[in-house]
Specification:
Length: 115
């Protein structure tokens, strides 16, 4: 059995990228400004992180105009959504102690030691 950390996605695991992907996982599509405000980062920081996610195939970037104003819309690709789901399951398994050995049945301390 391998530790669940081996299932963590290196692209998504960075805190800002995890926040971006989590925000996008809750919607079909979101404007750049909405994601920027939700994640509380600058335009340039969001652009850089979105580029990394786009290169990995996890985020789709779509440009449009509302009148004369440019709009950038972000959405997770099916691959991005699947990667996020796997990453969250791995985090859950780590947090729940899924890899901890079973306690010794006779009430001993087991491999983890005293609580």
């Amino acid at each position: 059995m391998s530790h669940p950390r081996s299932r963590l996605d290196g692209v998504i695991h960075a805190p800002v990228r995890l926040s971006i992907v989590a925000a996008l996982a809750a919607v079909d599509s979101a404007e750049f400004k909405f994601v920027r405000e939700t994640v509380e980062i600058s335009d340039s920081a969001l652009s850089k992180q979105v580029s990394t996610l786009e290169e990995a195939g996890y985020v789709r970037v779509r440009k449009s105009f509302a009148g004369r104003r440019p709009r950038t819309h972000l959405s997770l690709t099916p691959e991005g959504r699947a990667a996020f789901d796997r990453h969250v399951r791995a985090l859950h398994d780590i947090a729940s102690g899924a890899t901890l050995p079973d306690p010794v049945p006779d009430g001993g301390e087991g491999a983890a030691g005293p609580a």
